[in-house]
Amino acid sequence: MQLQMLARERYVPTGESDPVACYHLPLLGRLYRRRVARCIDLLPPGQRVLEVGYGSGVSFLSLAEKYEEIHGIDLHNRPGDVARSFADTPLALHLRQGSILDLPCPERSFDAVLAVSIHEHLEPRDQERAFAEVHRVLRPGGGYVVGVPGLNPLMTAAFLALGYRIQEHHLSSEKRVLAAMAERFHIDRTVFQPRWWPRSLTWYACARGWKA
């Protein structure tokens, strides 16, 4: 799957940390788009999906190819602005402010949940609570897809070259996130990028877990 997106000027940046501009850069943009597309590829079919940390909505057009309803939770307070940027599309969007640690959603609400580059920003002690909340809002047999960047010397050096101290923002490694996920979900597939690199040097991991 290739990530379907609106024109660049249509997206509403939701804060200083919103990477929406990166998706349109020549090389870096391809990497950003690919990670989201691969996560969406892993999602099971269904009617209702929840994206945790939807940002500016870069995933919405591709999610609409698999789901009738797209629900979104994010810490920022601009759900109305984001929804209006898709006003001339047929998407059924339901966006609100909220945290993965306390999802404002009833139990068993969704067929699938997606979180791209969210769990690495959580303290290790909060991982179990986050996965418990997602488990609560998923229907039995529902799937949770998590995307998380690698935390290793290669990634640290790459981000430092961009003026970004990754360890100040990425508080949990992909190994810690996947270990916490395995305590709540049955993980049946994990995709590491690039596939031909040693896993100890991975730049991104996408994992799919199922609720029993």
Top CATH class: Alpha Beta
Question: Class by helix and strand content?
Answer: alpha/beta
- Which whole number gives the mean pLDDT? 90
Beta-strand residue fraction: 15-25%
What is Rg?
A: 16 Å
Low-confidence stretches: none
CATH fold-type name: Rossmann fold
H and E string: HEHEHEEHEHHEE
Q: Total strand count, please?
A: 7
Spatial strand arrangement across the major sheet: 3-2-1-4-5-7-6
Shape: globular
Helix content: 25-40%
CATH homologous superfamily label: Vaccinia Virus protein VP39
**Biggest sheet, open or closed, and with what strands and sense?**
7 strands, mixed
Terminal CA distance reads 27 Å
Overall structural domain count: 1
- Which CATH architecture would you pick? 3-Layer(aba) Sandwich
Number of helices, counting only DSSP H or I runs of 4 residues or more: 6
Output the keywords.
alpha/beta, 212 residues, 24% strand, Rossmann fold, globular, single chain, 7 strands
How would you describe this protein?
With 212 residues, this protein is α/β, with parallel strands linked by helices. The chain has a single domain, classed as Rossmann fold (3-Layer(aba) Sandwich), CATH 3.40.50. Strands 3-2-1-4-5-7-6 form a seven-stranded mixed sheet, sandwiched between helices. Helix 3 links the parallel strand 2 and strand 3. The radius of gyration is 16 Å and the shape is globular.
